[in-house]
Amino acid sequence: MTIYKLGEIAKIVGGNSKFTEKYILNNQGIYSVISSKTSNNGIYGCINTFQYEKGITISKDGVYAGTIFYQEKPFSITSHAFYLEITNKNVLEKYLFYFLKNKQEHIQSITYGSTRDSLTKTDFSDFVVSIPSLETQSAIIKIIEPKEDLFFRHKNLVRIDSEENTKKDLSILIKIIEPLEKQINAFDELIFSEQKSLQHYLNYFLNKLASINPSIFKNYKLGDITKIVSGNPKFTKSYIEKNEGVYPVISSSSFNNGVYGYINTFDYEKGITISKDGSVGNIFYQSNCFSINASAMLIQPVENMILEKYLFYLLRSKEKNIKQVFSGSVIKHIYPRDIVKIKVDLPTLKTQSAILGIIEPLHKKINLLKQKKKLLEKRFIYYQNHLIKEKIKDE
């Protein structure tokens, strides 16, 4: 293994400023023009001439300056990219590309600029590279090339310092990481499909059915069918720190089901919460014991008028309307007096129960799919960490 500075094994060639958007429009063709774009292999447009037959390009400006690409076909580069011309006969171009791609995050970290990040020739020339023998480089290329896309997705997990390490790490990617990745993606597709179905039914039952069959609905204000309970101001950050436990305190947080912290007591066994300060109008269903602080409210159904779970779905369908009744210009607030005025169409309890019979199984199925996906993600992270540890151990 020989250590070089990049400038010792390659010439860093700047791009041509003539390749502007106007130039490309006036000279359209089939040859790529590479710029600082980080998608589509850095291609900015196509013209009818080319500068280079193939090679390594690097974006030099922008948020992701330092992004490495390999151009398999003839191309040119704008002034927002570099081309690497190999000058050392002991360096294979494709191996250097894999090495730099493997170190891409490190390269991106040496960019600088007050308004727009930029990679300079000087800094890039000083970048340290490790080059094994030509035989090892060639062997590593043969291992990676058939699985290039997989390598690109998980480049930080693959050691390319020896044929043995590259083969071992890529084998784990192929046998374990890639199948897990496919399973996770399959769950994403299933979840998306089920969520689409759920949204269809929610939209139909909660928004359209009243106009199709008005006889089974009656119009109410939310104040007629709910009771709104304010949160307790004692549940401050300090209180939570002194009374740590397993029961959530719900606040105005818009994520993690509104959970702000955990204490050793609870006020309610289950129910519907809504954020009232800051990120207002976020509606969550709490299925386990909880409390609420002063930045949230509890919305309870009036008995024999509306079922709690139906109320939750109804409120979620009206979330946009609820978010629009806020007060305050700097910090937003929602008050019970504003929520109670919102009008809703409500069917009979029997109809509510029938609707829940369709919606709830879908909702439970989605949650089950998410749980299974989470287990796969944990396995995925475990094997990722294993590869990272192996890589760190060798550095």
Report on this model:
This protein is an alpha+beta fold. The chain folds into two domains: 130 residues, Alpha-Beta Complex (Adenine-n6-DNA-methyltransferase TaqI, Chain A, domain 2), CATH 3.90.220; 163 residues, Adenine-n6-DNA-methyltransferase TaqI, Chain A, domain 2 (Alpha-Beta Complex), CATH 3.90.220.20. The chain contains 14 helices and 18 strands. Strands 2-8-5-6 form a four-stranded antiparallel sheet. A four-stranded antiparallel sheet has the order 11-17-14-15. It starts with a strand and ends with a helix. The mean pLDDT is 91. GO terms for molecular function: DNA binding. InterPro entries: Restrct_endonuc_typeI_TRD (IPR000055), Restrct_endonuc_typeI_TRD_sf (IPR044946), Type-I_RS_S_subunit (IPR052021). Keywords: DNA-binding, Restriction system.
Write the layout of secondary structure elements.
Elements: E1 2-5, H1 6-9, E2 10-14, H2 21-26, E3 28-34, E4 43-47, E5 55-59, E6 68-71, E7 75-77, E8 81-86, H3 93-102, H4 104-109, H5 121-125, E9 128-131, H6 134-144, H7 148-153, H8 163-212, E10 217-221, H9 222-225, E11 226-230, H10 237-242, E12 244-250, E13 259-263, E14 271-275, E15 283-286, E16 291-292, E17 296-301, H11 308-317, H12 319-323, H13 336-339, E18 343-347, H14 349-394
Parallel strand pairs: 3-7, 12-16
Antiparallel strand pairs: 1-9, 2-8, 3-4, 5-6, 5-8, 10-18, 11-17, 12-13, 14-15, 14-17
Helix pairs in contact: 6-8, 8-14
